[in-house]
User: Fold this.
Amino acid sequence: MTNNKPMSDFTVTQQPFNEISRLPNNTQYNYSWPIPFFWKNYRTYHIDHTTKLKWMIPDYYHCPSHSASKSALSPKREPTNFALHWDLGNTDSKTFMRVEYDDVAYARLMKQLKTRRDKDFGIDDKVILIADQLAFAKHNEELGKPFSFKKTLDLISTIIPGNDSYAIFKITQGVIDRMEKYFMDGPDYPLFKKGMQEWLTENYKKLGYTVSDIWDPE
Assistant:
């Protein structure tokens, strides 16, 4: 999902998560089908809290890289809105898909998330944002490509504090367990533990727990 122009619509490029050549041969079905793409943005969501729908129709015949044609999905923006717009794809996690944002779109989305986390973003939105970034990092790691968990940690540090959703805790626990393996034997492990404490202290207090470094008495 690309949203890096000050006065242009965002665009979405549809691609298979795994390379088609790596998938099992399938003579009865194929790996191409229309995708219902739900999204919301800065323009109307704060007014009526409605989401929009656009069907993405794949076209593998015109693109050798197996990437569907790009489609502008949102209405034309007014000049007064330039450089301010944010867009969230796969709203409420309604579609079996992953959404990857370009750096500008991600920065705009994060800014909105930090200022209106619990007003413009539901639990499903928060879970899928974390899950998508984690999935992309793990996928690149498994393929031996460069990967980073920075965006995943950015989202956790923004979404977790003060949030009592079980679903968000569940997806975050998987990230924490995975990250701890990377940090455990390294010099930055104390910083990692400090980060965990910063993120989770408020949540544990809500549950009536006392934060302590001494395990047995507590």
The two ends are 46 Å apart (CA to CA).
